[in-house]
Amino acid sequence: MTLNRFQNFYLALLLAFAGVLSVSGTIALRNLLHLGLLLLLLVYLGFMWRTERGRVVALTRTVPLPVWCWCAYLLLFPLFAPNSAGAWSNLIGKGMWGESLLTWLLAGGAFLILGKKRLTLWLLALVSAVPVFIHLCLTLLAWAGVLQPAFYQDPSLLAAGQSLWAILQDGSLPQKPFQSFPLGFRGIEPMHGNLGYPASQTMCVGLAVMFSAWQQGKQRRVIEAGTLVALCFLSVVIAASRAATYFSFLLLACACLFFTVTVPAKRVSLSTGVRLSIVGIVVLCLVFFQQVVSQNSFWYSVGAKMTVGLYVENPRDLICDGFSSATTEFVRQRHPGKDQAYVESLIDGLRGDGGRVLLARVGAELSASNPWGWNGGRDAYQYRIEQMCGHVPALYFSHAHSAWINLILAVGWVGALLYAWVLLQFAKSGCSALKQEHKWPEGMALLLLSIFWLLRGMVDAVYQEHYLEMQAFFLLTLFFLLRSGKPAFE
Fold it and tell me: Can you give the residue range of the structural domain that contains 23?
């Protein structure tokens, strides 16, 4: 196999790996691809070491210091963890941290083999959007009545394919097509995060591509990238991923601000057709969003429910012992003009949106009293809250719904601060590149993605399992794209 063919084969496997990182039901495939890519990297180094030694050294030196410190800490953590056996299991046996460490290596190896010519921003945006494409295609099939009852009982790509085949065999099977749009439909994903995180990640890179194309006068790419961003936004609204929807607005606002204020001002004017296309895409997305929000209390009641979680007294007692008549009376007094149904909805919200606020308040207390973490696992919160309550809590949550609290309880304050340093270092690198004429698109993508993962961790458990692999691969790849072009590096 020639080097060119090897690179193309490696690229195909890499894109498959990056594309399925957040797709349900692909754990075995993801792990197989991960292992295959690492083995191919070893083969490449074995045959090309003499010619690639300089680039390997340059890549190694380019990796930011916080990444080295973070990886070293994870490897050493089992030696001093309060639960050493559990920490070794989570590093090697269960593989959460081990796989993420190997993904940092994979990102470096991928850039070594493929370089900037093959790993472009646009390609990274498209492959990150694979879960979005799958979701939107399944949404159209559901709206057209193609998906059969068996799919809804056990959603999977196989079940969707079987439904489509059944329709092709018997045209009388569609289930009342185009009656009502399937809002809340998540396709094959049981958790909205599996759609929200890759959609937001795609927006970070896609916005950088769109503004870069605008500056260069590539009008077709402006429309393509703008459409991709819009599809990501529509996907998270359809799937009722509220946090991802609001983060979409934040990312768009940040990208516009960075482009307007800091990016070099030399820009090519867009044609009237392109401007109208972009305006039309934005208006359609906003109208769709407004219609969804105005007609569904799941969206517009979130603020009131979170407020209850903020001002309720003794959050620890409420989580440990559950609701009481005093809880109902307290909420009723805070909303004297509301009926019983509204009060009950707010109290019930303490199991959901309001519960996240309770968890943050109790999690802060747990984090302060357990500075060295526990065993590195996602079950650290469950262990500590049961320890605090003296029994299984009445309001049971599997984790703290805050990645930073989960991280502190899992690997301690030192581990959490090191990972914050990693994200802040990437953000700093991206910010520094915004004023560089030929580097700002990669800088914008890296800055937006760093900001997203940094802030998203405050409201969701995103520093675990395959989400860590997403962060390692895309952040380090963008960083290498940003730093490429130096002698011996590219």
Answer: 3-118+408-483
